[in-house]
Amino acid sequence: MNAPVIPIHVLADPAGPPGPRPQRTRRERPVTAQALAAVRGAIGASPLRRDLLIELLHALNDRFGQLQTDHLAALAELLRLSQAEVYEVASFYHHFDVVRENANGGFDAPPRLTVRVCDGLSCEMAGARDLLQRLPALLDADVRVIAAPCIGRCEQAPAVAVHQHPVARATVESVVHAVQAGLTTHATQETPPAIGLDAYQAAGGYQTLAACLSGQRDVESVIQSLEHSGLRGLGGAGFPAGRKWRIVRDQPAPRLMAVNIDEGEPGTFKDRHYLERDPHRFLEGMLLAAWAVGIDAIYIYLRDEYHGCRALLERELALLKASAVMAGMPNIATIELRRGAGAYICGEESAMIESIEGKRGMPRLRPPYVAQVGLFGRPTLAHNFETLFWVRDILEKGGDWFAGHGRHGRKGLRSFSVSGRVNKPGVHLAPAGITLRELVHEYCGGLPPGHELYAYLPGGASGGILPASLADVPLDFDTLQAHGSFIGSAAIVVLSQHDRATDAARNLMAFFEHESCGQCTPCRSGTAKVRELIAGDRWDAALLAELSQVMRDASICGLGQAAPNPVDSVIKYFPQELA
Ligand SMILES: Cc1cc2nc3c(=O)[nH]c(=O)nc-3n(C[C@H](O)[C@H](O)[C@H](O)COP(=O)(O)O)c2cc1C
Ligand code: SF4
Q: How many CB atoms lie within 10 A of CB 164?
């Protein structure tokens, strides 16, 4: 028998309703009435829950263009938290600009506008450095131009965000035009129209869910279909989805679900691609999983860079919640959409859970696994967006349909995010096990004139760099490990003879150093040290190998463990660049 469903606000605040605020220490700053009024005005009627801290910080950052320390102190007062707790969260996330008083005791005005130039590998190869150098001189002094880690638009490289407005294939002229024309919202010509709730239902959407809810389909047969399909987690780790459903279902209620749309791995943009086009296919998959596993509350974590997706999901979720679909799911106490704040590490599932709880995104030590002790201490089903996206199709068409695809002895479908030196960058749905050579020629229109395949990244920043001589290896989970590499989220970046693997490794290591959460020394110091060691043309291979081993063995999470991959790949496959 299921345990009684616990009200969600108790889950969200395991300590119970807020009690008196802890005594303010002598070192804490006084809270002014003015700051309290400003904060109250910005956060409006939002509940004062600790787990909503990041949402509340967004409200302040959006309203004032920055986070002033007097406002942080006032927010701490309202949330009955120590000022240190609020400050440490605010200063952890890259999208929050924490500012202190100036010499006059006031606060400098924030920049009027921020232009973020993506300096991810694909954008760097397409000219991001040139944009970063030239733009500041061409824009007004109150426009801030900064480099941003991969913004998930690698097929549009070089990609730039003018406030929330994405500029695809950016040139100096197009960015200056966007700034001068005041194009700052998420609207863009590049975004295709999404299939809304009505159109989705008219085409048979939510029928599979209805069949489950009405008892036409039972949980065991649904989980068996999923197992039969061979669907594995598409966030990178590749854990079998059906098995995960069984594990979480066997845990005591209440069980929660955390949906991962952080999509921060440089080179990856598949989740955005599908979300922009067909949001309800994902939402139906999410509800099917919630039904099969017996989930009581769902939290969707969406990266902050995807402003258009956020608006779309807010709209479609509101329609869904008001529709008859949700009336059939009274067990789901809440579906909350949470906004990331610019931290790659929050894609790691336990860091995502910390972030949803309103904390710094620092990965947890395991065991216990999140399936047992996850969000708010409850068993949690954590899934990547795309894993859920395929659930409806698999249940409708059968596990054989999904498993029936595949090449070179592999099974299933993979959504490859392809960028770099190809004629048709984008998301290409192809059989699992396809080789890089086949993928580029059959799906991506080959390489541009004057370019020949030199190297490729099979799994984004973390998956290593392989030479052209390994372009005939099947691309799938478990096929690349022997080559010191992995497919991860299937983010393929293609390099030609005009690129250098050493440059790519420098770009990726700078990214890892920037994004390390700093919790453990092998990763925090290791990424910085490796970046220094590879800055020149002569690399100390023995020292790098030693450092790489320490990072792999002793880092807490996958970021630090995989960070040495690109450097190890260069030493193994591209020694000619180091001669
Ligand atoms: C450093 C790091 C970053 C990650 N980023 C993401 C991400 O952006 N999106 C994602 O779905 N999974 C990401 N993952 C994998 C998640 O930890 C987790 O395995 C996944 O969300 C589980 O869902 P799945 O089984 O459906 O793939 C990341 C893992 C690591 C170590
Ligand atoms: S490996 Fe890096 S990102 Fe992961 S917990 Fe350690 S410091 Fe943080």
A: 20
pTM: 0.96
Ligand 2 near 328 CB (within 6 A): no
Reference 283, options 253, 241, 315, 252; nearest CA is 315
237 lines ligand 1 (CB under 6 A): yes
Q: Which atom of ligand 2 is closest in space to residue 363's alpha carbon?
A: 5
Best residue among 260, 477, 515, 556 to mutate for probing ligand 1, ranked by most atoms within 8 Å of CB: 260
Instruction: Please count the other Cβ atoms lying within 10 Å of the Cβ belonging to residue 204.
Output: 10
pLDDT tens track of the chain, all 579 residues? 333 344 444 455 544 445 555 566 667 889 999 999 999 999 999 999 999 999 999 999 999 999 999 999 999 999 999 999 999 999 999 999 999 999 999 999 999 999 999 999 999 999 999 999 999 999 999 999 999 999 999 999 999 999 999 999 999 999 999 999 999 888 777 777 899 999 999 999 999 999 999 999 999 999 999 999 999 999 999 999 999 999 999 999 999 999 999 999 999 999 999 999 999 999 999 999 999 999 999 999 999 999 999 999 999 999 999 999 998 898 899 999 999 999 999 999 999 999 999 999 999 999 999 999 999 999 999 999 999 999 999 999 999 999 999 999 999 999 999 999 999 999 999 999 999 999 999 999 999 999 999 999 999 999 999 999 999 999 999 999 999 999 999 999 999 999 999 999 999 999 999 999 999 999 999 999 999 999 999 999 999 999 999 999 999 999 999 999 999 999 999 999 997
Q: Are 200 and 280 in contact (CB under 8 A)?
A: yes
Q: Which atom of ligand 2 is nearest to the CA of 345?
A: 3
**Residue 544 Cα, ligand 2 centroid: separation in angstroms?**
19
